[in-house]
DNA sequence: TTTATTTCTGACAAATTTGTCTTAAATAGA
DNA sequence: TCTATTTAAGACAAATTTGTCAGAAATAAA
Protein backbone atom coordinates (compact mmCIF):
# COMPACT_ATOMS: atom_id res chain seq x y z
CA UNK A 1 0.00 0.00 0.00
CA UNK A 2 2.59 2.55 1.13
CA UNK A 3 6.31 2.19 0.44
CA UNK A 4 8.69 1.71 3.35
CA UNK A 5 10.06 5.19 2.74
CA UNK A 6 6.54 6.51 3.15
CA UNK A 7 5.89 4.51 6.29
CA UNK A 8 9.09 5.88 7.82
CA UNK A 9 8.06 9.35 6.71
CA UNK A 10 4.71 9.14 8.45
CA UNK A 11 6.17 7.71 11.65
CA UNK A 12 8.92 10.31 11.68
CA UNK A 13 6.48 13.15 11.12
CA UNK A 14 4.29 11.97 13.97
CA UNK A 15 7.28 11.68 16.26
CA UNK A 16 8.70 15.09 15.31
CA UNK A 17 5.32 16.77 15.71
CA UNK A 18 4.90 15.21 19.10
CA UNK A 19 8.34 16.27 20.29
CA UNK A 20 7.83 19.73 18.86
CA UNK A 21 4.65 20.14 20.86
CA UNK A 22 6.79 19.47 23.94
CA UNK A 23 9.24 22.14 22.79
CA UNK A 24 11.86 19.59 21.86
CA UNK A 25 13.72 19.67 18.58
CA UNK A 26 14.30 16.07 17.42
CA UNK A 27 17.51 15.06 15.73
CA UNK A 28 18.03 12.24 13.26
CA UNK A 29 19.49 9.72 15.69
CA UNK A 30 16.70 10.32 18.17
CA UNK A 31 14.04 9.97 15.48
CA UNK A 32 15.46 6.77 14.00
CA UNK A 33 15.70 5.18 17.44
CA UNK A 34 12.15 6.09 18.35
CA UNK A 35 10.54 4.90 15.15
CA UNK A 36 12.89 1.93 14.82
CA UNK A 37 14.17 2.77 11.35
CA UNK A 38 17.55 2.75 9.58
CA UNK A 39 19.22 6.07 10.32
CA UNK A 40 20.74 6.98 6.95
CA UNK A 41 17.66 5.98 5.02
CA UNK A 42 15.48 7.97 7.39
CA UNK A 43 17.72 11.00 6.79
CA UNK A 44 16.79 10.93 3.12
CA UNK A 45 13.11 10.69 3.88
CA UNK A 46 13.31 13.59 6.33
CA UNK A 47 15.16 15.63 3.77
CA UNK A 48 12.45 14.89 1.24
CA UNK A 49 9.81 16.07 3.69
CA UNK A 50 11.82 19.22 4.48
CA UNK A 51 12.11 20.03 0.78
CA UNK A 52 8.33 19.89 0.60
CA UNK A 53 7.99 22.25 3.58
CA UNK A 54 6.37 19.55 5.68
CA UNK A 55 8.93 20.07 8.44
CA UNK A 56 11.77 22.44 9.33
CA UNK A 57 15.36 21.30 9.56
CA UNK A 58 18.21 23.04 11.35
CA UNK A 59 21.88 22.17 11.04
CA UNK A 60 24.57 22.36 13.66
CA UNK A 61 24.66 21.58 17.38
CA UNK A 62 21.17 21.66 18.94
CA UNK A 63 19.93 21.28 15.39
CA UNK A 64 17.31 18.79 14.24
CA UNK A 65 13.76 18.71 12.94
CA UNK A 66 10.65 20.59 13.99
CA UNK A 67 7.01 20.95 13.06
CA UNK A 68 5.26 23.86 14.73
CA UNK A 69 1.88 22.91 16.15
CA UNK A 70 0.13 25.43 13.91
CA UNK A 71 1.81 23.81 10.92
CA UNK A 72 0.92 20.30 12.09
CA UNK A 73 -2.74 21.28 11.99
CA UNK A 74 -2.43 22.27 8.34
CA UNK A 75 -0.50 19.21 7.22
CA UNK A 76 -2.60 16.28 6.08
CA UNK A 77 -1.49 12.71 5.80
CA UNK A 78 -2.09 13.07 2.07
CA UNK A 79 0.64 15.73 1.90
CA UNK A 80 3.18 13.38 3.44
CA UNK A 81 2.19 10.43 1.31
CA UNK A 82 2.25 12.48 -1.87
CA UNK A 83 5.64 14.01 -1.05
CA UNK A 84 7.19 10.56 -0.83
CA UNK A 85 5.11 8.13 -2.91
CA UNK A 86 3.57 10.53 -5.39
CA UNK A 87 -0.12 10.68 -6.26
CA UNK A 88 -0.46 7.24 -7.84
CA UNK A 89 -2.30 6.00 -4.76
CA UNK A 90 -4.93 8.76 -5.12
CA UNK A 91 -5.51 8.64 -8.84
CA UNK A 92 -3.92 5.45 -10.10
CA UNK A 93 -5.80 2.61 -11.76
CA UNK A 94 -6.01 -0.69 -9.85
CA UNK A 95 -4.62 -2.54 -12.86
CA UNK A 96 -1.95 0.03 -13.62
CA UNK A 97 -3.34 1.64 -16.75
CA UNK A 98 -2.05 5.16 -17.35
CA UNK A 99 -5.55 6.27 -18.17
CA UNK A 100 -8.66 4.64 -16.73
CA UNK A 101 -11.98 6.34 -16.15
CA UNK A 102 -15.70 5.82 -16.59
CA UNK A 103 -15.44 6.47 -20.32
CA UNK A 104 -12.80 3.76 -20.80
CA UNK A 105 -12.74 1.66 -17.64
CA UNK A 106 -10.61 -1.33 -16.76
CA UNK A 107 -12.59 -4.33 -15.45
CA UNK A 108 -12.04 -3.27 -11.84
CA UNK A 109 -12.75 0.40 -12.32
CA UNK A 110 -16.35 0.62 -11.16
CA UNK A 111 -15.60 -1.42 -8.05
CA UNK A 112 -12.33 0.31 -7.30
CA UNK A 113 -13.11 4.03 -7.47
CA UNK A 114 -15.02 4.19 -4.22
CA UNK A 115 -12.24 2.37 -2.38
CA UNK A 116 -9.68 4.76 -3.76
CA UNK A 117 -11.86 7.76 -2.94
CA UNK A 118 -12.36 6.56 0.61
CA UNK A 119 -8.64 6.24 1.07
CA UNK A 120 -8.01 9.63 -0.47
CA UNK A 121 -10.58 11.31 1.75
CA UNK A 122 -9.24 9.64 4.85
CA UNK A 123 -5.72 10.84 4.10
CA UNK A 124 -6.91 14.31 3.18
CA UNK A 125 -9.02 14.63 6.31
CA UNK A 126 -6.47 13.37 8.79
CA UNK A 127 -4.05 15.99 10.02
CA UNK A 128 -0.62 15.32 11.39
CA UNK A 129 -1.69 17.13 14.54
CA UNK A 130 -4.48 14.62 15.03
CA UNK A 131 -2.13 11.65 14.82
CA UNK A 132 0.43 13.26 17.09
CA UNK A 133 -2.20 14.31 19.61
CA UNK A 134 -4.01 10.99 19.77
CA UNK A 135 -0.61 9.53 20.47
CA UNK A 136 -0.65 11.43 23.74
CA UNK A 137 -4.21 11.08 25.01
CA UNK A 138 -4.65 7.43 24.11
CA UNK A 139 -1.27 6.01 23.31
CA UNK A 140 -0.57 4.68 19.85
CA UNK A 141 2.79 3.16 19.10
CA UNK A 142 5.64 4.07 16.79
CA UNK A 143 7.77 1.04 17.46
CA UNK A 144 7.43 -2.54 18.66
CA UNK B 1 -1.51 -1.11 -4.17
CA UNK B 2 -1.14 -4.34 -6.16
CA UNK B 3 2.17 -5.63 -7.53
CA UNK B 4 2.65 -5.80 -11.28
CA UNK B 5 2.59 -9.58 -11.05
CA UNK B 6 -0.82 -9.31 -9.41
CA UNK B 7 -2.12 -6.87 -12.01
CA UNK B 8 -1.04 -9.22 -14.77
CA UNK B 9 -2.65 -12.08 -12.86
CA UNK B 10 -6.00 -10.34 -12.66
CA UNK B 11 -5.96 -9.25 -16.29
CA UNK B 12 -4.94 -12.73 -17.42
CA UNK B 13 -7.66 -14.37 -15.34
CA UNK B 14 -10.30 -12.09 -16.78
CA UNK B 15 -9.10 -12.78 -20.29
CA UNK B 16 -8.91 -16.54 -19.80
CA UNK B 17 -12.35 -16.64 -18.20
CA UNK B 18 -13.79 -14.67 -21.05
CA UNK B 19 -12.23 -16.89 -23.70
CA UNK B 20 -13.28 -19.99 -21.80
CA UNK B 21 -16.89 -18.82 -21.82
CA UNK B 22 -16.58 -18.73 -25.59
CA UNK B 23 -15.22 -22.26 -25.56
CA UNK B 24 -11.71 -21.14 -26.44
CA UNK B 25 -8.64 -22.34 -24.60
CA UNK B 26 -6.16 -19.46 -24.34
CA UNK B 27 -2.46 -20.04 -24.67
CA UNK B 28 0.36 -17.98 -23.20
CA UNK B 29 1.21 -16.03 -26.33
CA UNK B 30 -2.40 -15.15 -26.92
CA UNK B 31 -2.89 -14.06 -23.32
CA UNK B 32 0.24 -11.90 -23.19
CA UNK B 33 -0.71 -10.18 -26.42
CA UNK B 34 -4.22 -9.45 -25.27
CA UNK B 35 -3.32 -8.06 -21.87
CA UNK B 36 -0.16 -6.36 -23.17
CA UNK B 37 2.23 -8.06 -20.75
CA UNK B 38 5.72 -9.62 -21.00
CA UNK B 39 5.25 -13.22 -22.08
CA UNK B 40 7.76 -15.05 -19.89
CA UNK B 41 6.83 -13.13 -16.78
CA UNK B 42 3.17 -13.77 -17.43
CA UNK B 43 3.94 -17.49 -17.71
CA UNK B 44 5.16 -17.46 -14.13
CA UNK B 45 2.10 -15.67 -12.92
CA UNK B 46 -0.18 -18.10 -14.74
CA UNK B 47 1.70 -21.00 -13.26
CA UNK B 48 1.26 -19.51 -9.81
CA UNK B 49 -2.48 -19.23 -10.40
CA UNK B 50 -2.64 -22.79 -11.71
CA UNK B 51 -0.83 -24.07 -8.62
CA UNK B 52 -3.54 -22.43 -6.54
CA UNK B 53 -6.27 -24.09 -8.62
CA UNK B 54 -7.51 -20.75 -9.90
CA UNK B 55 -7.22 -21.95 -13.48
CA UNK B 56 -6.50 -25.16 -15.38
CA UNK B 57 -3.45 -25.56 -17.56
CA UNK B 58 -2.89 -28.09 -20.33
CA UNK B 59 0.40 -28.82 -22.03
CA UNK B 60 1.01 -29.79 -25.61
CA UNK B 61 -0.52 -28.71 -28.90
CA UNK B 62 -3.99 -27.19 -28.46
CA UNK B 63 -2.96 -26.72 -24.84
CA UNK B 64 -3.37 -23.55 -22.85
CA UNK B 65 -5.35 -22.17 -19.95
CA UNK B 66 -8.99 -22.48 -19.01
CA UNK B 67 -11.41 -21.44 -16.32
CA UNK B 68 -14.76 -23.15 -16.48
CA UNK B 69 -17.66 -20.77 -16.07
CA UNK B 70 -18.85 -22.61 -12.97
CA UNK B 71 -15.39 -22.15 -11.49
CA UNK B 72 -15.24 -18.48 -12.43
CA UNK B 73 -18.35 -17.90 -10.36
CA UNK B 74 -16.65 -19.33 -7.31
CA UNK B 75 -13.36 -17.47 -7.71
CA UNK B 76 -13.18 -14.11 -6.04
CA UNK B 77 -10.73 -11.35 -6.80
CA UNK B 78 -9.42 -11.88 -3.30
CA UNK B 79 -8.34 -15.41 -4.22
CA UNK B 80 -6.27 -14.15 -7.11
CA UNK B 81 -4.72 -11.29 -5.16
CA UNK B 82 -3.88 -13.55 -2.24
CA UNK B 83 -2.35 -16.23 -4.48
CA UNK B 84 0.10 -13.70 -5.89
CA UNK B 85 0.59 -10.90 -3.36
CA UNK B 86 -0.26 -12.76 -0.16
CA UNK B 87 -2.66 -11.51 2.50
CA UNK B 88 -0.73 -8.42 3.62
CA UNK B 89 -3.21 -6.20 1.77
CA UNK B 90 -6.11 -7.68 3.77
CA UNK B 91 -4.59 -7.79 7.21
CA UNK B 92 -1.45 -5.68 7.07
CA UNK B 93 -0.85 -2.55 9.12
CA UNK B 94 -0.65 0.74 7.22
CA UNK B 95 2.69 1.51 8.83
CA UNK B 96 4.04 -2.01 8.41
CA UNK B 97 3.96 -3.27 11.99
CA UNK B 98 3.81 -7.05 12.21
CA UNK B 99 1.14 -6.74 14.85
CA UNK B 100 -1.27 -3.83 15.04
CA UNK B 101 -4.77 -3.96 16.48
CA UNK B 102 -7.14 -2.04 18.72
CA UNK B 103 -5.29 -3.18 21.82
CA UNK B 104 -1.94 -1.85 20.54
CA UNK B 105 -2.68 0.41 17.60
CA UNK B 106 -0.32 2.37 15.39
CA UNK B 107 -1.26 6.03 14.92
CA UNK B 108 -3.13 5.30 11.72
CA UNK B 109 -4.92 2.19 12.91
CA UNK B 110 -8.33 3.59 13.80
CA UNK B 111 -8.53 5.52 10.54
CA UNK B 112 -7.17 2.71 8.42
CA UNK B 113 -9.17 -0.36 9.42
CA UNK B 114 -12.36 0.66 7.66
CA UNK B 115 -10.47 1.41 4.44
CA UNK B 116 -8.79 -1.97 4.59
CA UNK B 117 -12.08 -3.71 5.36
CA UNK B 118 -13.79 -1.99 2.45
CA UNK B 119 -11.08 -3.15 0.12
CA UNK B 120 -11.20 -6.66 1.50
CA UNK B 121 -14.97 -6.87 1.15
CA UNK B 122 -14.86 -5.53 -2.37
CA UNK B 123 -12.29 -8.14 -3.41
CA UNK B 124 -14.15 -10.91 -1.60
CA UNK B 125 -17.48 -9.98 -3.12
CA UNK B 126 -16.32 -9.58 -6.69
CA UNK B 127 -16.18 -12.79 -8.68
CA UNK B 128 -14.03 -13.41 -11.67
CA UNK B 129 -17.19 -14.27 -13.56
CA UNK B 130 -18.54 -10.79 -12.85
CA UNK B 131 -15.45 -9.09 -14.25
CA UNK B 132 -15.33 -11.32 -17.30
CA UNK B 133 -19.05 -10.91 -17.94
CA UNK B 134 -19.13 -7.14 -17.56
CA UNK B 135 -16.35 -7.14 -20.11
CA UNK B 136 -18.87 -8.46 -22.60
CA UNK B 137 -22.06 -6.54 -21.88
CA UNK B 138 -20.45 -3.15 -21.35
CA UNK B 139 -16.90 -3.32 -22.56
CA UNK B 140 -14.06 -2.79 -20.16
CA UNK B 141 -10.53 -2.86 -21.43
CA UNK B 142 -7.57 -5.11 -20.83
CA UNK B 143 -5.06 -3.16 -22.87
CA UNK B 144 -4.50 0.33 -24.18
C1' DT C 1 6.95 -43.41 -33.08
C1' DT C 2 8.11 -38.98 -34.41
C1' DT C 3 7.38 -34.17 -34.55
C1' DA C 4 5.67 -29.89 -33.33
C1' DT C 5 3.54 -27.32 -29.84
C1' DT C 6 2.75 -25.86 -25.34
C1' DT C 7 3.38 -25.40 -20.28
C1' DC C 8 6.93 -26.12 -16.46
C1' DT C 9 11.25 -25.10 -14.24
C1' DG C 10 15.15 -22.85 -12.82
C1' DA C 11 19.04 -19.96 -13.80
C1' DC C 12 20.13 -15.51 -15.04
C1' DA C 13 19.68 -10.27 -15.88
C1' DA C 14 17.72 -5.65 -15.41
C1' DA C 15 15.29 -2.28 -12.80
C1' DT C 16 13.63 -0.47 -8.67
C1' DT C 17 13.54 0.08 -3.84
C1' DT C 18 15.83 -0.05 0.36
C1' DG C 19 19.78 0.72 2.98
C1' DT C 20 24.94 2.29 3.92
C1' DC C 21 28.86 5.17 3.89
C1' DT C 22 31.67 9.24 3.28
C1' DT C 23 32.34 13.94 2.72
C1' DA C 24 30.57 18.68 2.50
C1' DA C 25 28.11 22.53 4.47
C1' DA C 26 26.12 24.92 8.24
C1' DT C 27 26.12 26.52 12.91
C1' DA C 28 26.09 26.73 18.11
C1' DG C 29 29.09 27.37 21.77
C1' DA C 30 33.60 27.56 23.96
C1' DT D 1 38.31 31.65 15.59
C1' DC D 2 38.09 26.81 16.47
C1' DT D 3 35.78 22.64 17.47
C1' DA D 4 32.13 19.57 17.84
C1' DT D 5 27.66 18.50 16.23
C1' DT D 6 24.13 18.10 12.98
C1' DT D 7 21.79 18.08 8.40
C1' DA D 8 22.70 17.82 3.09
C1' DA D 9 24.25 15.35 -0.78
C1' DG D 10 25.70 11.90 -3.61
C1' DA D 11 28.10 7.61 -4.52
C1' DC D 12 27.76 2.97 -3.56
C1' DA D 13 25.73 -1.72 -2.03
C1' DA D 14 22.14 -5.05 -0.89
C1' DA D 15 17.60 -6.80 -1.46
C1' DT D 16 13.45 -7.28 -3.89
C1' DT D 17 10.68 -7.15 -7.89
C1' DT D 18 10.31 -7.46 -12.63
C1' DG D 19 11.64 -9.45 -16.77
C1' DT D 20 14.42 -12.90 -20.03
C1' DC D 21 16.20 -17.14 -21.68
C1' DA D 22 17.03 -21.98 -22.43
C1' DG D 23 16.02 -26.50 -21.78
C1' DA D 24 12.83 -30.20 -19.72
C1' DA D 25 8.42 -32.44 -19.60
C1' DA D 26 3.98 -33.34 -21.43
C1' DT D 27 0.89 -34.29 -25.19
C1' DA D 28 -1.87 -33.94 -29.57
C1' DA D 29 -1.64 -35.21 -34.19
C1' DA D 30 0.47 -37.13 -38.16
Q: Would you write up a description of this structure?
A:
The structure is a homodimer of 144-residue chains. The first copy, chain A, has 144 residues and is mainly alpha-helical. Chain A is built from 8 helices and 2 strands, in the order H-H-H-E-E-H-H-H-H-H. Chain A has a two-stranded antiparallel ribbon. The model of chain A has no long low-confidence stretch (mean pLDDT 94). The A-B interface holds A 1-2, 4, 7, 10-11, 14, 77, 89, 92, 94-99, 104-112, 114-115, 118-119, 122, 126, 131-132, 134-135, 140-142, 144 and B 1-2, 4, 7, 10-11, 14, 77, 89, 92, 94-99, 104-112, 114-115, 118-119, 122, 126, 131-132, 134-135, 140-142, 144. Chain A binds a DNA duplex (30 and 30 nucleotides) through helix 3.
Low-confidence stretches of chain A: none
Put simply, the count of helices of chain A is 8
Computed structural class of chain A:
mainly alpha
What Rg of chain A, in angstroms, do the CA atoms define?
17 Å
The largest pleated sheet of chain A is described as:
2 strands, antiparallel
Q: Approximately what portion of the residues of chain A adopt beta-strand conformation?
A: under 5%
The overall average pLDDT of chain A, rounded, is 94
CA-CA gap between termini of chain A? 20 Å
Oligomer: homodimer
Strand order of the largest sheet of chain A: 1-2
Helix content of chain A: 55-70%
Can you write the helix and strand succession of chain A as a string?
A: HHHEEHHHHH
Amino acid sequence: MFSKACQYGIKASVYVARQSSLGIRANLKDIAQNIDSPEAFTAKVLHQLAKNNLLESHKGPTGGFMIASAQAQKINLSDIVEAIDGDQIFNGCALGFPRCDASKPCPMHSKFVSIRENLKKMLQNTTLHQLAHELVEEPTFLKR
